[in-house]
């Protein structure tokens, strides 16, 4: 997956999380599920793109 594709997925998942949380609350089962999915995407981004820049220096 390209960096841009991953960023797009993160943005979509963040928007879904905000929508679900505004409907059901931040502690709802649905919001927690979306939050965990967003966390996974952010972790993947960090592993793939941010840690690379730190190891170069």
TrEMBL record:
- Give any Pfam family that matches: SpoOE-like
Gene3D superfamilies reported for this sequence: Helix-loop-helix DNA-binding domain
What biological processes does GO assign it?
Answer: regulation of sporulation
Q: Name one GO molecular function term.
A: protein dimerization activity
Note the SUPFAM superfamilies from the entry. Answer: BAS1536-like (SSF140500)
Name of the protein described by the UniProt record: Aspartyl-phosphate phosphatase Spo0E family protein
């Amino acid at each position: 997956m390209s960096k841009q594709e991953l960023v797009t997925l993160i943005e979509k998942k963040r928007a879904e999380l905000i929508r679900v949380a505004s409907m059901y609350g931040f502690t709802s089962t649905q919001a927690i599920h979306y939050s965990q999915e967003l966390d996974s995407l952010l972790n993947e981004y960090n592993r793939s793109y941010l840690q690379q820049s730190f190891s170069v220096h």
